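The records we work with from here on pair a chain with its fold. Taken together, the tokens spell out the fold as the letters spell out the chain. The record below shows the convention in full.
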Amino acid sequence: MRHSRKAASGAPDAQMVLVAQSITTTWTRQSSGGAAATRRGAVPKALPLPPEAAFAAAPATIVHSVGYHEDDLFAQPSHSRLETLAGIARRRVTELAIYPQPGAIRVAAEWSGFRGAPIRHPVPHLLLLRPDTWGQVTFNLRTGGTGGPWTYASHVINIGYYAAFHAACFMAAPPIAMPAFMADLW
């Protein structure tokens, strides 16, 4: 089902919907190679939105968070959460900050040193999304150590700015940009 909205006169953003989807895959050294790494690599980079996302009334922000874990060999999401908020406001999705601007959304990478290694420098103008476009940002992190096991995480963040959106909005057309921050996490 496709939902279409026309911009209200004088307020071009009043009928827009910001959609963010965070897909996080976590694992330990146990899944860093072989068949487990192959299964981990097969985790989807985009998923359909849950059906209840269709009820978001513009302007709105939809955040869909999904996690995969090695406990079930990355076969299905370990969790899925949908959050719908009225309006479009500054928002943080993991290490990315989303800044609404007139007629667009600016995405910045604002790495927090508390989330893991490696240390990265901020990227204030990572993406600029105009209406009915989306971008995909990927990055990875390593946490733990100091006597405990390392834990690894791969993040795929899909962000779209839509006047017309549907459940498969991140699967129907390619993203306008795909910045990647993938480090060798030894």
Remarks:
- The helical segments are 34-41.
